[in-house]
Amino acid sequence: MNRFFRKFAVFCVPFVLALAFFVAFEPYDYWLLRGECLYMSRALNSVRRLRTGKCENIVLGNSLMANLNEGYIDEVSGIDYDNLAYGGATMDEVVDQFWYAAQHNKLQRVVIGLNFYIMNSNYRSGRWAGIQQDGEHVFDFIGDFGYWTEAADNARTQAQNLAAGLLDRPDLSVHVDDPSSLLQDTRPDMTRNEAGDRANIAEYAALIYNQTEDYDAGGRYVDDLVEIARYCSENGIELTFVMMNCHALIWKNVVYPRQLEGYIDYYKRTLKACANVIDFEFDNDYSRNDDIFLDGFHMVLSEKKRLMGVIFAGAPDEYAVVTTPESYAAGLADAS
Q1: Which site among 2, 127, 151, 259 is 20 to 30 Å from 166 CA-CA?
Q2: 276 pLDDT more than 90
Q3: Phi/psi-derived region of residue 196, left when phi > 0, alpha when psi is between -120 and 50, beta in every other case
């Protein structure tokens, strides 16, 4: 019998080593051992973090919120936030992610970032169910060959960069940039087109225009967010909606041609009546500041840091309209 167990143990060694390799290099930090994951792996990682039941203060949204550095948010706010936003998130995913967070955690503060682009009711993915499935069932995760491939790619990248470091050379290979990093200070491309506009922003606006061809301003997502606001109010959760701005060319070449300004006004009014709102989303001098935009939506590092001070530490800002349901109602009463 002992001989059998010795042979069995020897037989298991390759599988144990393979699993150890997988745990060490999978980019999702699935077992929450490293304390960080790669930027493009944050959706699945958020499920794992939420399942611990330790997320009391959370940030949700797409890349506009995911690009805000979690450590810096904690520093300026003095509060331990979990930034669970991730690039490419759609509002249906954000809504599902909130309810999953509420199911598994005793929430105290929730910050949800949005703008007109993510509020398109036809901009849906339905990916959350699959993300949740892999996050809850470890054997589904381990048994997916795609995740093993990503672990191998990660291991190869780290080995190449280690070798480059030993040889005092630049990294030979890098992962997708992490826009939330405080060490990454990408500078905007200031090349102008014939019209005198930032060329890359004009191209970005054309892309967004095409992507909003089937825009649905039917209010489905507004109803979802109002329901979240109602739940937060009933359960003593501090909810804040942050309406992020875009470059003026997005207003000029997307919002106005698509006639979305009425819908933007509608969801602003509706959400301000039921939750705290920090509203940056205006066509104003801020939106025309080429120096702070990398593209039509995303900001340079210095501006992201400034925004985090406004959103999470209450720093005053001339371009932000901050309301509570009470102050918004009082403003409507004064106007009448």
Answers
A1: 151
A2: yes
A3: left
What pLDDT shows up at residue 159?
Answer: 79
Average pLDDT, the chain: 92
For the record, the structure tokens of 27 come out as: 């980019």
- Mapped onto helix, strand or coil, the DSSP state of residue 242 is strand
99 CB burial (10 A radius; 0-12, 13-18, 19+): middle
**Residue 167 pLDDT:** 67
Q: Check residue 39 and report its DSSP letter.
A: G
The rounded distance, in Å, linking the Cα atoms of 8 and 210 is 59
pTM: 0.93
Q: Which residue is listed with tokens 């051992």? A: 33
Interstrand relation of 238-243 and 57-60 (parallel, antiparallel or unpaired) = unpaired
Tokens of 284: 């104003």
Q: How far apart are the first and last CA of the chain?
A: 88
Specify the amino acid at residue 173.
S
